[in-house]
Amino acid sequence: MTTSSPETPDSPDYLRGFGNHHVTEAIPGALPQGRNSPQRPPLGLYAEQLSATAFTQPRAANRRTWAYRIRPSAAHPAFIRIPNGRLRTGPFNEIEPDPNRIRWDAMPPATPGTDFVAGLFTVGGHGSPLTGMGMAIHTYAADTSMTDVFVNADGELLIVPEQGRLRVLTELGRLDVPPGQICLIPRGLRFRVEHDEAVRGYVCENYGAALALPERGPIGANGLAAERDFRVPVAWFEDREEPVRVVQKFGGNLWAADYDHSPLDVVAWHGNHAPYVYDLADFQVLGSISFDHPDPSLFTVLTSQTPVPGLANVDFVVFAPRWLVGEDTFRPPWFHRNVMAEYMGLIRGVYDAKAEGFVPGGASLHNTWASHGPDAATHRGASAAELVPQKLDDTLAFMFETNLPITLTAQAWTADHRQPDYDAVWSGLGREFRA
Ligand SMILES: [Fe+2]
After folding, report:
1. What is the dotted CATH code of the domain comprising 282-420?
2. CA-closest candidate to residue 376, choices 308, 428, 339
3. Taking CA 423 as the corner, what is the angle to CA 420 and CA 429, rounded to the nearest 5 degrees?
4. Rounded CA gap, 220 and 214, in Å?
5. Would you state the pLDDT for residue 8?
6. CB 66 within 8 A of CB 81
7. What pLDDT does 355 receive?
8. Which pLDDT score, from 0 to 100, does residue 103 have?
9. What would the pLDDT profile of 330-339 be if each residue is shown by its tens digit?
10. What residues are paired with 205 via a beta bridge?
11. How many angstroms separate the alpha carbon of residue 9 from the centre of ligand 1?
12. Which CATH class is domain 14-33+42-280?
């Protein structure tokens, strides 16, 4: 049985639903009634609109939030270029695109004093934020809470913790994100990440259309990720009149400006451009109850669509605990080649296509058209297994799937934690042909 992760006593409060137009205020009466920009907003607050889509996009796609804050975010000096650290942004052209299957061990522990942003390590990606298409894959390892505030103008950030609980303090409220849950920081929203322990995990940076729930088609009105399980924070603010550095990622580079106050000062807001958290234990896993198993698109939690119907810029797919009951069926993932590129990570447990070597915090990349599938040990075991109903329990893997080849960064290619001999997992697949 799966249950939602326990929340701590000081867990922040949330509003429920996916893509809703929420209304929330941290102080009663802070939100203007009847209009968005009154002559004098309540409590001496400033009104500011965050528009994440063009004004004239259709209602179903339109995203904007009105914020009522202590200071307008415009009150700041110039942004100055600062070093990018290990962050990289498309176009990815440091090294040639590589067709090989690649696997990494978990990231090494963070150098003491590393915060979430400094701990980001870009693995690769495709496309560019300057053209609004594509994505980047990052991992992170950090041991120190941020004091800066960060904002990404290049794309939204899907954060997948593998170790350590994150407290994500945003302009629009607080999110509590332990491993097993994910959070989404929308493009252009300011935030700070705090934690009481060393943390590690994965980030998908989506340059394209905002992640949304997939269509259900013949599944019907229920199943997969349910709208009501997505949690959006209630308004929360900090009133700090002291220097706070705001670091912005813009066009692939980091820029910093010194504010004289915290920009996390939104006392009330309403709108639908907001961060959210989702517990992967709430994902209703569907599968075959006869034979074979469906394509892994059935495990899609969120999808960023391209203009081509059904073609994703990014799919976030989760391989959660589930029953396998297929008769006369090879139950692990089959051998396959795929026009999509697949980056997989492991949050806990083991993955049913790899008997060993794919570890929590580690990752694999099977690029477009790369031949892959179960390793030799898994193939041997599953071909001989007695096909009784089987529960896959100790597992939580995920995939960032994308529509174009992923090109690695030089640092991901040369990383000490890249495994040198991943191809060897398929070397024991001997000839079994009997004419
Ligand atoms: Fe695959």
Report:
1. 2.60.120.10
2. 428
3. 145
4. 12
5. 47
6. no
7. 67
8. 96
9. 999 999 999 9
10. 136, 157
11. 40
12. mainly beta
CA–centroid distance, residue 367 to ligand 1 (Å): 9
From 130-144, 395-409, 418-432, the region with the lowest mean pLDDT: 418-432
Torsion of CA 261, 267, 270, 276, to 10 degrees: 70
| Distance in Å, CA 385 to ligand 1 centroid | 22
Is 358's pLDDT higher than 90?
no
For residue 225 the two structure tokens come to: 């990720």
- Ligand 1 center–CA 133 separation, angstroms: 22
How far, in Å, is the centroid of ligand 1 from the Cα of 164?
28
355: which residues sit within 8 A by CB, 6+ positions away? 375, 377, 378, 381
In the chain, % of residues over pLDDT 90: 92
Report the pLDDT averaged over residues 251-268. 97
Residues 119, 141: contact at Cβ < 8 Å?
yes
| Alpha carbons 390 and 406: distance in angstroms, whole number | 35
The answer to whether 222 and 285 are in contact (CB under 8 A) is no
Sequence-separated contacts (24+) of 28-35 with Cβ below 8 Å: 30/68, 30/235, 30/267, 30/268, 31/68, 31/268, 31/269, 31/270, 32/68
Mean pLDDT (whole number) for 276-293: 97
Confidence of residue 435 (pLDDT cuts 50, 70, 90): confident
The answer to whether domain 14-33+42-280 and domain 282-420 are alike in fold is: yes
What is the spatial distance between Cα 115 and Cα 320, in angstroms, rounded to a whole number? Answer: 29
Nearest to 345 by CA among 105, 119, 132: 105
Q: How many angstroms does the Cα of residue 107 sit away from the middle of ligand 1?
A: 22
> What pLDDT shows up at residue 5?
42
Q: Where are the domains of the chain?
A: 14-33+42-280, 282-420
- Tokens representing 310 are 């059904």
Is pLDDT above 50 for 310?
yes
- DSSP one-letter string for 204-258: EEE-SSPPBPPP-GGG-SS-BS-GGG-EEEPP------S-EEEEEEETTEEEEEE
The whole-number pLDDT of residue 237 equals: 98
Catalytic residue numbers?
293
